[in-house]
Write a structure and sequence with these properties.
It contains 14 helices and 15 strands. With 442 residues, it is an alpha/beta fold. The strands form three sheets. Strands 1, 2, 3, 4, 5, 6 and 7 form a seven-stranded mixed sheet that branches. A five-stranded parallel sheet has the order 10-9-8-11-12, covered by helices on one side. A three-stranded antiparallel sheet has the order 14-13-15. α9 links the parallel β9 and β10. It is globular. The N terminus is likely disordered.
């Protein structure tokens, strides 16, 4: 039987010191001003891109898009006997953090294909430095399991649980002290803890990273259904383009216009469909909670009834890593069967918690996606810069300017004030059904 081991918590003072040390150590790397995403480490010019041979499987790739690395990974045990045998091999039991729970689910279900476990040090450093696995396969961000435990190490088998529910086992094959300043600088473009991702690495993640294969036992039970890549692929047409739209906030009118009009882009073939694929895992502290976001998506799906729009949900933990995270999202959506990916302005971007300035340029994620996406079979679709006008409704900003149309504007701050104050929200800005959910839950 697995021995129960409590999770090792570090005191808030120690975490603060760790954050300070991260900044101090990073001073040798960090420029005085906020770097643009062009300083974010991208693929090394010398890296070649080769498919990774994967395990054989049944007919999972129903959609036209090939999974990343060639085969869709499935780490789930299929029988109760197999699950019980895996649990019996465990030497230690841990409760998963919300971020770990998202990562292990995406490993188990193949969304992180071709990965079959948490990254060892060589793989971690390869992704940090070159945005690629050691064999050259492009990968946007490290997928790591963190701990503060001095005792855990190679030879241990961790039973990872969510409450009483056994989720997975991790066969620990490596333990290493990560280079957190370098990780932040390369992946987030800065090692300053004003960046929410760098802050997360410094203060939330443990002192050590553990690498090793994952065996899936049970998918987490969530308030929203997160179907696996194999399940989603079975629902997608195999003869048309599938355009993915990523979001982490409620969908308002401009968003809806954006992803439905993307189907008319010259890069998208005739008859294409949109897969709206919001993330419902941990994100920035001031974002709307995932369960509330899920409710807004469900009511909007019912209100619009658009046959060319599909809705699924992704248990992904946001890093706010800008261009690097855009690549990560494209890889995940490729594994779900998508051929195209909408890249919005300042996608997965963030602002300094001190100055309020943007860490990335508005089009840095688009530029990196255009450069790298075609190398692994994904076509980025730049999002339209839409504005609402009194005369013609939603049009592009350039069209509105050329024709001297009168733009209607409502800032996010003003919208939240109106929402809290019970004021009427204009329908050109937000769907009534979405507004009602937000009023009831936020």
């Amino acid at each position: 039987a697995a021995q129960e081991v409590s999770i090792f918590f570090v005191s808030s003072i120690m975490k603060f010191v760790a954050a300070a040390l991260l900044v101090a150590t990073a001073s040798a790397f960090t420029a005085a001003s906020f770097p643009s995403a062009r300083s974010v480490s991208t693929v090394s010019p010398g890296v070649s891109f080769v498919p990774v041979p994967r395990v054989s499987q049944t007919q999972l790739e129903a959609a036209k898009q090939e999974p990343h690395g060639g085969k869709l990974v499935d780490l789930m045990e299929k029988t109760e006997e197999e699950k019980e045998a895996a649990i019996a091999r465990a030497t230690v039991t841990l409760q998963a953090t919300p971020r770990q729970l998202c990562d292990v689910e995406l490993l188990m279900n193949g969304a992180f294909s071709p990965l079959e476990g948490f990254m060892d040090e060589d793989t971690y450093m390869s992704v940090v430095n070159d945005m690629a696995l050691p064999d050259g396969t492009i990968f946007g961000l490290p997928v790591v399991f963190d701990t503060d435990s001095e005792e855990l190490g190679p030879g241990d088998v961790i039973l990872l649980k969510d409450g009483d529910r056994p989720i997975a086992t991790i066969e620990v094959t490596s333990k290493y002290t990560p280079n957190k300043p370098l990780e932040c600088l390369k992946c987030y473009g800065t090692s300053a803890i004003e960046h929410p991702g760098a802050l997360m690495v410094a203060t939330e993640r443990g002192k050590y990273y553990l690498g090793g294969p994952v065996t899936g036992l049970n998918l987490p039970i969530r308030d929203f259904v997160c179907r696996t890549p194999a399940q989603v692929r079975e629902t997608l047409p195999d003869d048309v383009d599938v355009v993915a739209f990523q979001c982490r906030n409620p969908v308002h009118r401009a968003h809806y216009e954006l992803f439905t009009r993307a189907l008319d882009d010259e890069l998208v073939g005739e008859g294409g469909v949109v897969l709206v694929h919001p993330t419902c895992g941990p994100t920035q502290a001031d974002d709307i909670p995932g369960d509330v976001r899920y409710k807004t998506y469900e009511v909007l799906k019912e209100e619009t009834h658009n046959p060319r729009t599909r809705w699924e949900y992704l248990p992904y933990s946001m890093h706010m890593a800008g261009p690097r995270e855009a690549i990560q999202h494209m890889i995940i959506r490729k594994n779900f069967g998508c051929t195209h990916f909408i890249i919005g302005r300042d996608m997965a971007g963030s602002k300094s918690s001190v100055t309020g300035e943007d860490f990335y340029g508005a089009y840095d994620a688009q530029d990196l996606a255009k450069e790298v996406g075609p190398k692994f079979g994904m076509t980025p679709v730049p999002s339209l810069n839409l504005v609402y006008t009194e005369e013609e409704g939603y049009v592009t900003a350039d069209y509105a300017k050329e024709n001297n149309l009168h733009e209607m504007k409502l800032s996010g701050t003003k919208f939240r004030q109106m929402l809290r104050g019970g004021e009427e929200i204009p329908e050109w800005f937000a769907f009534k059904s979405v507004v009602q959910v937000l009023r009831e839950n936020v």
